[in-house]
Amino acid sequence: MRRPLLHSKTNTQLSSRTESRTKVEYTGLALEKRLRQKRSLNYVNGFTQLDAGTVTCNHTEIDELIQKIKNEFSDLQPYHYPIGIIAKCYLGDDFIVHTLDTRLEIVKHYKKGEALPSEMDRGKSLALHPSYEFIEVYSDTLRAVSSNGNVAIIKR
Amino acid sequence: MGERVIRTADLRNMESYLNNLGNSVNIVAGQIENVGADLNNTKNTLDQLINEFHQFVRSDQLQKNVQLAETRLVKVRQELETEYGHYGDVRRRVNGILQAVDTSLIKKETIENASEDQMLAAPRYWLAPCLIALSAWINDNKELAEKAMNEAIRRDNEKTALFFALVTRRGARYKASRKWLENYFGLQDPHQLEREIVVLIDGFTNGIFGPDARIKCGKKVESWIEELSQKVGFVEEQREQWKVALESKSKKVDEELYPYLREFGKNWGEIEQSLEGVKLHKIIADYFQDVFAKEVTPVKSIAVAVDALLDTLVSRFDDEELPLRRDERLLSLVIQENGDQERAEKLFEEEKVIENQISFTQLLTNFSIHPEVSNASIATQKFSISLSKDWIKSAHEDLTAENRANVPIDINLSIDQWEGVTQDGTNEEELIVSINNHVEKRRNAALSKVKLGVQHWAGLIGGILFTLTGFGVPFLFILAGFCYLYFYLGRRNLRSRKAHISSEFDQLSKYCTENLRASIAEVVDYRRDYKENDANAQLVTEFLDGISPEQYTFSSFDSARSVQ
Amino acid sequence: MNQGKASSPVVLNRNKSSETQFIEKLKKVEEETTNSALAIQFPDWDLTPPTTLLKRKRSKLL
After folding, report:
1. Complex ipTM, two decimals?
2. N or C: where does chain A have the smaller number of CB atoms within 10 Å of the terminal CB?
3. Domain boundaries, chain C
């Protein structure tokens, strides 16, 4: 179908994304659009396997997880990555969620009743919900990822 | 010293002089008054004169305006006749063919018009070659018809496509009509659509152009969506609008439900909000199912509206003539209003047909979210929803996640002065014990305040003293007796008060335990209620996933027929 | 998934009859809004748009 010959400036940001995964400075709506894109299965599965580890993950496993994040968002600047991931914990009765802090590069397991750090606390009940595999925590939003990679966004 | 004596005669003279002076002053004052009155009169007369003068000037001006307008009007009309005289002619001839009821009349018209002369007479007007093409076609002159058609397309492809789409429909040539209509849609820029498009969309979604047109034109509109989606912000805007629209359908929780949590739940507000949000899933699922369950029937009124487009298209002034036509109209108005330029211009503005174009984004929102405002038919509504389904899904998923994120994990109960927390009611016994302890503490605190006063102890001591001293003075035994009595009554009173207090606390305990159990029962209900309704989120997703673009058509029949 | 389609013959039949109903109504509307005097004038062949796709006009803002 014919399209108008003149593109608006914002179009170029999108087209550059499809050409190559070079780092682009996304802002505003374009950034939101990118972060709403369906997650790859590889990425999603990477986090559901978080349970398989013991109570404290060793550093190689943590590195692997962080690498998965880098791969998934390879076209974004690091400061746009999620600051944490929260997922259900199946380790035992006592533990209910575990978190990956991407900046400090640590994994922590939380027991029932234990409070998460303030910016992650809102994601706790969401992470426990059966419809979501895990929750990506950002400074201003939460993004809930389902098993098929769909992303739902919670701002408030 | 003698001069000081003023003679009486002189005095009298002076008096009469003074009187005269006074009279003169009065006379002058009177004259001044008259002058004042005269001045007023003069002023009034002057004002009148000024008014009359203004009026004269104005009416003179108005007259001049009229004269000027008349002169200019003649010139404008002359120019119209010279430059565009043939345009009117073409329009008349086209209408002659389209509106004639008598077949012989049509035949006569078309024979006259099946020549190339018209094309030369109105070299830029798109309708002229259309007239020839139409006439040639009816006269079975394929070569001329196609030649004229191509010329018409060259001059204005959009209007030509629309013209033939509508003429062929009116003439029951549905296959041709569909082809022309497809072309027309293909030529549209979704950012700037003519307002007629609304009638045409209603037309094809309701099957007025045939079942094939529904599919083919539907596909063209889908491509508009793709084009609009390229712009950052389009999809986001649609999604945000859908969020607002979906949320607006939520209903308040029934007043009669959850009476105990309403009263004793400290965070009832959060509970209520989470319930409203979760019950929305079913409401939304039902809404969409209702819309899609409604039947689409081809209705005469839509066909009539589509048909009316043809008449408008034919009689509309061409863009080129518009400036002169506008002048003509304005000048006529000035004459009509007797030279009142301002009033004429005001009327002219009011008459101006809104010519602005509309973006498909706005139309889409109107059709799908505010159908009652846009008068969209059910078919168009279904069509728009199916076009928007990805954004609706997205919006709904966001709302769902938000609702889930805001479910209170802890439910805080507050009964009497006791507070406790539960998540799902499984710690009921623990809480019962806690509230009982609370009541006991209060009971004990209250009871401990009830004591014998100093006076009672004084009575006892007094009694003992009197008893002891009574051995010497028997009378004191009586006093001792009174003291002991006083003390005894005090104690009896105390006991009954304590019993009373205790029984009050028994009541309180009962009250607390009953309400606590009831509240916890409601907590369990709430969790279950929430879970059941939360599962309905799936219904919405499934339904939306299940809509195919052909959902609004009878696709099994259509796809068979559309194999061409 | 097309909700209209079904494997059971009962549903198919119901679909068919509602479809035939639709076509009937469509025909009725067509009859009522056709200019029959015009319609019978046309010859056998159709005047259809050229096969080469028509190009979109330049911006109408000019």
Report:
1. 0.80
2. C
3. 9-33
